[in-house]
Amino acid sequence: MGDKTTRDCIVEAADKLFYQQGYERTSFASIASVVQISRGNFYYHFKSKDEILDAVIETRLCTTRRMLQQWEVEGKHPVDRIHRFIQILIDNRLKIKQYGCPVGTLCSELAKLDHGSQSQASQLFTLFRTWLRKQFVQLGHKSNADILAMHLLARSQGVAALANALYSEKFIKNEVKYMRDWLNNYV
Amino acid sequence: MGDKTTRDCIVEAADKLFYQQGYERTSFASIASVVQISRGNFYYHFKSKDEILDAVIETRLCTTRRMLQQWEVEGKHPVDRIHRFIQILIDNRLKIKQYGCPVGTLCSELAKLDHGSQSQASQLFTLFRTWLRKQFVQLGHKSNADILAMHLLARSQGVAALANALYSEKFIKNEVKYMRDWLNNYV
DNA sequence: GACGGTTTAGGACAATTGTCCTAGAATCTG
DNA sequence: CAGATTCTAGGACAATTGTCCTAAACCGTC
């Protein structure tokens, strides 16, 4: 476990399991067996299961913010940065075809559970939305930058959803090529 | 309940609840309270909960097949028929923003549960895929008809997923307009 | 009205769930 | 070393889950 605190280990394991099995499906027992702590020990670190979910979302928000910031540094041109966004579909294609998009599937599950952390989870989308919009604005699309950002976000969501349902890697590659062409023709 | 059999009532209620709350979340008790039968009575009609799921999927497959057949009759031109497909996003926009796409969310949940009926559920997608492909073939796109079918399917999935996550009706309308333009420019 | 198959109600079952409690171990502080 | 604080283990708790069982109600047929 290294030098990470028990709390961090719980959040890390929960993050992974929530993605792979879903939030509700993941029990305290299954997290405990991964982290190797007793079931009763959770309640020293978290008051409830919902609180673990909040911590997981918070972690994901931080990670995503950092990632987007990093992309901002690496990509010289806005087009390069948007291409970097599209690239995550390729990079994560194995996990996507198996578990779908971590953001999309979590939001979908929480919506069905009518869970209170729903709006927090959707902030993950907002992060990408705002970031993409910024890039499109820099490309001169002031009036419809948000439309374009949402469009690209939806496209990637659709790719993830279908690739997961049909368990197809090839489809991801097809669509990514399509998206790249779209982007290059648009700017 | 009319003259429908108890079995039909169970499947109907389960269908609705599976969509609104998810498969795992929906308990026998909650179905029972809708159909107004005792919990123990289920096992006369179904051997297990999985069997109810199978029946629900089977029903959805039948309904979808009928609907696609109907569209085939109503739409004179293949383009009209594809537009009819896009139109479901508008027709079901209220439910979509609240619960997502019934096909997409079910497949996503079953994938996470690693459920045996996963492939059955994804047949729902295949139904649309085959139907759309057929329309594109009739439009003369022989070599990439399947690519186009999958593309449109993914677009609609993405719209549903995002509209659900951000609870936005307006976004659906935006994207539908976009999809219609795409279709008209393509053919 | 008596019979036999179909359908139903309601409770029992073990397992699992999230939650809570308490006693003890570990760690830090003086 | 003594004491206080932080952390942990493990069991108890009620509630809920899917499943199963049995007896009674229903219903058409003789």
Task: Kindly report how far apart the N and C termini of chain A lie.
Answer: 47 Å
Shape of chain A: elongated
Which two chains share the most extensive interface?
A: A-B, 41 and 41 residues
Radius of gyration of chain A: 18 Å
Number of helices in the DSSP assignment of chain A = 10
Strand content of chain A: under 5%
Largest sheet of chain A: none
Assembly form of the protein: homodimer
Number of strands of chain A: 0
User: What is the average of the pLDDT values of chain A?
Assistant: 96
- The residue ranges of chain A in which pLDDT falls below 50 over 5 or more consecutive positions are none
What is the structural class of chain A? mainly alpha
Order of helices and strands of chain A: HHHHHHHHHH
Which percent bin holds the helix content of chain A? over 70%
Explain this structure.
2 copies of one chain form a homodimer. Chain A is an all-alpha fold and 187 residues long. Chain A is 79% helix and 0% strand. The first copy, chain A, has helices at residues 6-21, 28-35, 42-45, 49-74, 78-91, 93-99, 102-113, 118-138, 145-166, 169-186. Chain A binds chain B through residues 20-22, 24-25, 98-100, 103-105, 107-109, 111-113, 121-122, 125-126, 147, 150-151, 153-159, 161-162, 164-167, 171, 174-175, 178, and chain B through 20-22, 24-25, 98-100, 103-105, 107-109, 111-113, 121-122, 125-126, 147, 150-151, 153-159, 161-162, 164-167, 171, 174-175, 178. The first copy, chain A, binds a DNA duplex (30 and 30 nucleotides) through residues 6, 27-29, 37-45, 47-49.
